[in-house]
Specification:
2 copies of one chain form a homodimer. By secondary structure, the first copy, chain A, is α/β, with parallel strands linked by helices. Chains A, B: Residues 15-450 form the Lacto-N-biose phosphorylase-like N-terminal TIM barrel domain.
């Protein structure tokens, strides 16, 4: 049975695959494209498309850089270089003598330099951080070296910073590639300077350049924009290593004309502090300010409107316009309200996990999406001792469960094909992955699998704008402080559920009627748990009332954490737990664990809460504690009015926790009796059922698994190889 | 050498010891008193002094209860029973219908009951906790059952509480003793009702009763008040088990006359919320409000003035007045500014650790202090399978290092001697302990040992008022959330340093010139780390400036933690570390550990930070990281201006950590070169040197230790038995 089903995958045909190609290996390119069934080819940053592309029966993608790659233009128009708001380090005055602050002590001189040409009294701010107020421009002086500011009469014991507009002299992604690949050894490479299309001269140049390029490249079918105008915030330190990275950062989207246009439109003036944000630079972990939200909206409209002019030109040339989700993507906001206006045909993004896969696959208003899989064919993995197969397996097994629920239309790879072919075992593995991927489209009949008859909503300050994007710092990288929360998204990305993203503002207007369960996951004070948003009785009232009327709520970490009026979690009453910060140690809170519960029924090992959240206690004797350690709650369930709540101290992604979340959602929704059909008995295996009656079972691990799945004809035992999948079609199902 | 030195301890003579005695064991009492050299005897709660006391050549202590033990009076004056402010549980309205709140759902009906006789519109408050405001008295109704309040028109989704004045009908300590000892089986026992001397009739009665009692008890030399008027907050739940305990709590010090007198004096009215404090009841972990500080001051003056009338009577009767530090001690405030007015001769307290020992021994304005050692002779330890020797060892070894630094004048035991004599090994051990204790007085020549030539100050919201009392919930009990901070006090209690306690208000006025090192230890938001006190640039400025001018600062846990203006620790600049709450994850903070440092030179194992403090990062490259784990700082040292700072994520008490703190203090004070003479090489052994040239080395563990100590004639190797001590006198030293 199993081999037969797997055989169908292999027969699923060709297409849906993009390969990077390069000059000097034509025969290998032909052979690989045939073997893997690739129907599109691309170049990468630093490679050229070979002449061969004219002969291949494949679509041709070409990377296209809008705001860099023309140093002649950049050098001729230094005033139109992109800018960034930066802050100096904090410097404390140890006495009352004039205090010199080196603005560039922590930044990379080759990438950024203070913009001394602007009106520094307006676009620079010296700040007394101890008091929390800016100094008057008369209270500081810029020295002649161009990078030292002297606070003339500091107060001893106060910390000072200087926020300043800086000029960017190196595109961060090109800088990363340059430094990572040792291009300083290659005399053909230059350090590409970014320029800003907010300036009309540069914009006219960019428009004209694209028109010429489109004329000159008839072989190109798809213009792969990498990307548009503003890079996410990535600034190196004096050691030429990463110092600050925020994949969502708008700090480098600024310019004097834009700031002035903003003031004209919004009626108020933004200051450096609105961007520097006391040194946090409006990290998405910060509950966003009104000014920052306004700036995002302002630039989103600007960026999408200018992108539209580019995509119109691409379409007029008979080509498709594809956007790479990353690099200079700031302002595009794929989940923003003006994204449709950009006129893009497709989005391609790097798949690092199930959640990032959904982040790409769920983007609306494009005809297709493509996932660029890991590993990237770069020397950091593709060296003689590297193990690209392990990375490919990890990436595919994490991504597949997301692709099953929300199918990407295409997959692809990037980098240097010349490196990949040195690892034949890797090519073999790619062949298998591509076959499994194609079967999701062919065997499903083009349909999405069924999902539970209710919606789940992840709530945060960001709501829909950051769909599948919560808790990210750099794109999909692991952080100790985030994995225990991002595990919630990762689990959701592959569960048979319809997931939406709501902001606290949305909740204040009332929870949408099709949402059965709200999920709030994150650390104290962050935009993801909500922080100071919960200092609002109307929000607490709205959520409490939703639950009391029969809604479900799941909190992970520090949900609604904002100490006030007797509780730390503002939803402590509903959750049945609270975080004990010390103020309530005088209250004895007995802890009785109830080990058997619907929610924990499939745990195969003790509950793993990742970094956990310390000091969680029950608020009353009605809380069902499902797991505890060291006198602290780790997992709890409560009834609240007609509704139900579940709390976990952390939920890193693993098979057990994904199953636990799946069960918790069904319990919170009061839908336990409907659960069985949505899951295999073994949590390592997941199932998808389709409107046409097909059933797909897939093994998320690298061990073979035998387990039972639920079919309309009753339970079926199936065996899946390591990483394998099996379709039960028609009578099989 | 060693046996000879130990022999001197044995020869130290008799005295300084109080034993509990009881009727029916005269011969054993005589024999024990002779053997142990006891010079005082006492009874306990529930035991009578035997006739024998008239013959003994010993001082006689008798327990005396001021505010309980006379149920006839209590029953005749129910209006003068003590009161307490309590809160109901939080109850959430799930719809808009009238909401019934049972005031007593979480409290023990035999101990407290709502006072429906008072003006409930004034002394009760229904509270909307979601909004954070009280309801008007017209918005709620007390039902006829006397314990249900109905909120007439609640808002769905809001949480409500009722704060109310309640009558106390059982003295908490007597209740504890009663329930612990099963006195419900003893028909001679009654449940003692407390009465309040704030009422003039009760006060006159209490005065007269003492006069009569003094006349009737010529055999008594020392009136051991146990204690005075107001019990610390200890309330049981409906299960007759502890529900709330705060050894510093003033909730049960209230009465309508006192509240009215307060209003008359202070010019503002206190409300139930001023005591209920959203359910935290002004726990000492809360940064105290002005109202609570005023109430403490108000009651401190009242209590000490009324105690003075009692002590005057005692003195007039030719006896001494001793106060037990505990039970009904609220308002006495041994470190308060009016304590001297109470006219006490002595304080006795239970010794649970070095810090509690110092808490007793350092009390000013008394002629002598006495430590009641553990274990208390109660059946919970003194049963056939109990191990009282282990408890005695633990208590003594922890306490001795504190007693060495600040000698208690006397030690004693409490409970039932009849139980203790069933454990001869325990009596043997007591004999050894008493000999070691006496030697601290005899061999020292009555002098205190030398201390470093600079002061160390522990800073918190409480300052001097809570000297040696920080982080306590119930007297000296272990709490998971506190041991990592209380370890700092415990270490200090036995180090050769002069320790003071300063409040943030003190610091605002300037750090005293003899203080070289400030220590701030505690969890986020607590009065011990300072919480919202740090929302004050003047405080930050004062401490930064102190350090910059050459001061030392040691932070443990979450020092100055109050997220604001770019840092979580307001002293992050000086400390060189900060707590990363998520907002700064975008900033890359490399972590290089410097394993060899003066501070860590004596660690015998890896650094133990107890519960630790997660997410601590360096603020710059000048921070010396001495220990790290999982990418997080655990121990760091920094230079700041002319001063130095040390940071540790936690510091539970053990020999290594005590030594580490000792070294950290010397490093922060810039006094490394003076360190050697203050410590033995092995951290398990400590040394005390005296003005007369004597040197005491003592072994804090139950293993024999051979180590080197520093003497004026050079290093000396000594061998100490388990728990042993050795005096080097005159030429020996």
């Amino acid at each position: 049975m199993a081999p037969q089903a797997l055989g169908r995958d292999d027969a699923a045909g060709a297409g849906r695959l993009t390969l990077p190609i390069q000059t000097g290996m034509d025969a290998q390119v032909r052979e690989l494209m045939e073997r893997l069934g690739a129907d599109a080819v691309r170049n990468s940053d630093g490679t050229e498309l070979p002449e061969l592309v004219h002969e291949l029966a494949a679509k041709v993608y070409s990377t296209y850089f809008v705001g860099r790659g023309d140093n002649a233009w950049a050098d001729a128009h230094p005033d139109e270089a992109t800018r960034i708001f930066l802050s100096s380090d904090r410097v404390v005055a140890t006495d009352e003598s004039p205090l010199a602050i080196d603005l560039t002590a922590s930044w990379f001189a080759e990438q950024v330099r203070p913009d001394v040409t602007c009106d520094t009294a307006r676009w620079w701010q010296a700040y007394d951080r101890t008091v929390g107020e800016p100094l008057s421009p008369a209270a500081w002086r810029l020295e002649e070296d161009g990078h030292t500011v002297t606070v003339l009469e500091p107060q001893a014991g106060h910390a000072y910073t200087v926020s300043y507009l800086a000029t960017q002299t190196w595109d961060p992604t090109q800088m990363y590639n340059y430094l990572t690949n040792g291009w300083d050894q290659d005399p053909t490479r230059v350090k590409e300077k970014p320029f800003d299309v907010r300036h009309e001269a540069t914009w006219a140049h960019v428009r004209a350049h694209l028109d010429g390029w489109l004329r000159d490249h008839p072989e190109v079918d798809v213009v792969r924009f990498t990307t548009f105008f503003y890079h996410f915030t990535l600034v190196y330190g004096p050691d030429a290593k990463e110092r600050f990275v925020d994949w969502f950062g708008y700090s480098a989207s600024v310019s004097v004309p834009a700031l002035e246009a903003f003031e004209a439109e919004y009626g108020y003036r933004l200051t450096p502090e609105d961007f520097v944000d006391a040194g946090y630079y409006n990290s998405p972990f910060r509950v966003p300010t009104r000014a920052f939200r306004d700036w995002i909206s302002f630039q989103h409209r600007f960026v999408t409107s200018r992108v539209r002019e580019l995509t119109d030109a691409v379409h007029a040339a008979g080509k498709e316009a594809m956007m790479f989700l990353g690099d200079n993507w700031i302002g595009t906001e794929p989940y923003g309200e003006h994204f449709a206006d950009a006129g893009l045909d497709a989005v391609v993004g790097s798949v690092g996990s199930g959640a990032t896969c959904r982040m790409i696959a769920d983007i609306p208003h494009v005809r297709y999406t493509e996932g660029r899989f890991l590993p990237y064919f770069f020397p950091d993995v593709f060296h003689p001792d590297g193990d690209p197969v392990a990375e490919a397996n990890e990436s595919w097994l994490q991504a597949r469960r997301a692709i099953v629920r929300s199918p990407l239309d295409r997959i692809g790879y990037g980098g240097y094909l010349s490196l990949a072919v040195e690892h034949p075992d890797f090519i073999d593995r790619v062949e298998e992955i591509v076959a499994q991927f194609r079967s999701l489209h062919t065997c499903s009949g083009g349909q999405r699998p069924l999902a539970a008859p209710f919606k789940v909503a992840v709530i945060s300050s960001w709501g829909r704008l950051r769909s599948w994007m919560t808790h990210m710092v750099a794109h999909a990288l692991w952080y100790r402080q985030t994995y225990s929360y991002i595990g919630v998204l990762e689990a959701l990305s592959g569960l048979p559920l319809e997931v939406s993203f709501l902001s606290f503002d949305d909740l204040r207007e009332g929870v949408p009627s099709d949402v059965a369960v709200l999920i709030n996951a994150g650390g104290t004070g962050t935009a993801f748990s909500g922080g100071r948003e919960w200092d609002d009785p109307a929000l607490v009232e709205a959520v409490n009332a939703f639950i009391a009327r029969g809604g479900g709520f799941i909190g992970v970490g520090a949900p609604s954490d904002h100490p006030r009026d007797g509780v730390t979690f503002q939803l402590a009453d509903a959750l049945g737990v609270d975080r004990e910060t010390g103020w309530g140690l005088s209250t004895n809170r007995p802890l009785e664990v109830q080990p058997d519960h619907f929610i924990t029924a499939d745990l195969t090992a003790s509950f793993d809460d990742g970094e956990g959240t310390p000091d969680v206690v029950v608020t009353g004797h009605r809380t069902q504690v499902l797991d505890a350690a060291d006198g602290q709650v780790r997992l709890a369930a409560s009834h609240f009015g007609a509704g139900r709540t579940v709390y976990a101290t952390g939920l890193p992604y693993n098979a057990d926790n994904s199953r636990l979340l799946h069960r918790a959602i069904f319990w919170a929704a009061g839908a336990e009796s409907d659960f069985e059909r949505w899951a295999a008995v073994d949590p390592r295996v997941e199932v998808a059922t389709y409107p046409g009656g097909q059933l797909l079972a897939f093994n998320n691990t690298l061990e073979p698994v035998t387990t039972q799945v639920h079919t309309p004809r009753g339970p079926r035992t199936i065996h899946l190889e390591a990483g394998g999948q099996q379709w039960l079609l028609g009578d099989d199902a």
